[in-house]
Amino acid sequence: xxxxxxxxxxxxxxxxxxxxxxxxxxxxxxxxxxxxxxxxxxxxxxxxxxxxxxxxxxxxxxxxxxxxxxxxxxxxxxxxxxxxxxxxxxxxxxxxxxxxxxxxxxxxxxxxxxxxxxxxxxxxxxxxxxxxxxxxxxxxxxxxxxxxxxxxxxxxxxxxxxxxxxxxxxxxxxxxxxxxxxxxxxxxxxxxxxxxxxxxxxxxxxxxxxxxxxxxxxxxxxxxxxxxxxxxxxxxxxxxxxxxxxxxxxxxxxxxxxxxxxxxxxxxxxxxxxxxxxxxxxxxxxxxxxxxxxxxxxxxxxxxxxxxxxxxxxxxxxxxxxxxxxxxxxxxxxxxxxxxxxxxxxxxxxxxxxxxxxxxxxxxxxxxxxxxxxxxxxxxxxxxxxxxxxxxxxxxxxxxxxxxxxxxxxxxxxxxxxxxxxxxxxxxxxxxxxxxxxxxxxxxxxxxxxxxxxxxxxxxxxxxxxxxxxxxxxxxxxxxxxxxxxxxxxxxxxxxxxxxxxxxxxxxxxxxxxxxxxxxxxxxxxxxxxxxxxxxxxxxxxxxxxxxxxxxxxxxxxxxxxxxxxxxxxxxxxxxxxxxxxxxxxxxxxxxxxxxxxxxxxxxxxxxxxxxxxxxxxxxxxxxxxxxxxxxxxxxxxxxxxxxxxxxxxxxxxxxxxxxxxxxxxxxxxxxxxxxxxxxxxxxxxxxxxxxxxxxxxxxxxxxxx
Length: 706
What we know:
Elements: E1 12-15, E2 20-25, E3 31-37, E4 47-50, E5 53-55, E6 58-63, E7 71-77, E8 80-81, E9 86-87, E10 102-104, E11 137-139, E12 162-165, H1 167-171, H2 191-200, E13 204-207, E14 211-213, H3 217-221, E15 232-238, H4 248-264, E16 268-273, H5 290-298, H6 324-339, E17 345-348, H7 366-373, E18 381-384, E19 404-406, H8 408-419, H9 425-432, H10 436-439, E20 449-451, H11 461-464, H12 500-518, E21 523-527, H13 558-576, E22 599-602, H14 611-615, E23 621-626, E24 646-651, E25 657-660, E26 669-675, E27 684-687, E28 691-694, E29 698-704
Parallel strand pairs: 12-13, 12-21, 13-16, 16-17, 17-18, 18-19, 19-20, 20-21
Antiparallel strand pairs: 1-2, 2-6, 3-4, 3-7, 5-6, 7-11, 8-9, 10-11, 14-15, 22-23, 23-24, 24-29, 25-28, 26-27, 26-29
């Protein structure tokens, strides 16, 4: 086969319409061979081609006879010196880190380990078995696609409502979708899927990882899989398992069709991305890609003993963010998904790990600097999971301007309040008002806070009010996995209950959580299935459950239908009232010394909260008035925003509380438009000074009649 010199950039396999340029970075390799395969079932490569050209530590060559669809991998030569960090082993076929499509997934076998895993299990040994029959294979991709008039939606943050979903689990059991489409990218573009998302009122879908991933060895041994996908192998390739065709080229095309279809429906696409670690694990893990290409360059190794990996993720390894080539790979990947795949933003898993320049988290690290100066990435939605498992890794509120964050403090505060914990109202008020203590001083806005009560990781909303302990036995880890402290409350009965009173209390508590979330300043995020009252039977760590424990069941009971309608109604209320989605923090006083106070907090007697009330252990009932004519903001046309004045009442007591409506000195009429203690939404009218009977553990929303 003819081989020309080619170019060191772009990295990866690039089809130019005539041939394919192959380029692979490895600083410490002594030789690189490109291996071409005839089919995904081939046990050996059909040809090996030495890449003899090397420019700036990039091995490259151009093959004019290769076409899109060609399956390939690499064999990389170099020292096998684990104590020095080098783990080259040319007997192991490795995947191109820049692979844009995958032609074959990993098949677990002892030969994919660089050491003799079936012998002494000593990672210092050198295994000579060939892994070509079992290793994952990349495929050359033609990225051309007809996008038509598709363009970024750029929904403003303050108007955004996020819906976190799993591509497979969302549609796998949706009966109105043809069975061959269920659980795929294309299923999300079908009328039933889009109808649900649009009727719900969300504006963006946040997809659990769709980068091609592998299942961990220990899961494969238990006949389980990594369902969530936080075990990335290829940062440029959509997971082939979510495509209808299961072919490399078509998997890329189907992903693009999904994005185009969601955009046409007015929905942004946010990807959950895992750039903090890879699927290769610690020193005992397999050699699948980066480990065999240049272990020292790609991973953070333990100072003084480079045999071991620094692990800030709990997954065995951490990518080396101090390496310019690692940073380049991540930035190239992000740009590719924006420019080529048209996604609208990213949620960065364990983002604190990306900011560890040395050991401590540095919010001014190179990773953030590069994103801020990038004309493409600085304009998309950027969401951080602001923690990792390392020392000092909890960084809620410490990410720089331009970033939003999963606000774990919001989640915990709301859960504690509705559980009935004491001394919570001050914290709750801060979270409801946008968490200014976390974001205002750094120049960020309320929408820097991604508010959530539940997510994929942890109890579902229905289970949150039904279980006080996790039940993860199905995961095969003797219930040791998963978070222990879920701040849950089950009304005295563990698990499902046939008691109508218990059922009613749980339904009310679910309504409390959803209403609190949607009536808070910041960006709300719903976890898929919560609106359907889905239960995972108490399993709060379903990462390995690719079955009906995780898939959404669309056969709804009357109670589930009722709750779904409630969720839709609450989202509609949020969208109807700008005062619930402000772009600026509350002043807490009259604007410029005149007009009305933009926010005020009241105790059940109808007077403003005092310092003693805020500090009291016993106060579990408060009200907040949001003045619609004191927003002090303008819309996109420069018009001043005026909204209804709203009063939100929160009662976490076990007893009914008579709440005196404020403003008796200035007579006004209030209309009750929502009460979580009542399924029906009757609009009751009351005057200032009247008492509103706020039932136990309930929330009410009232509107001031103009």
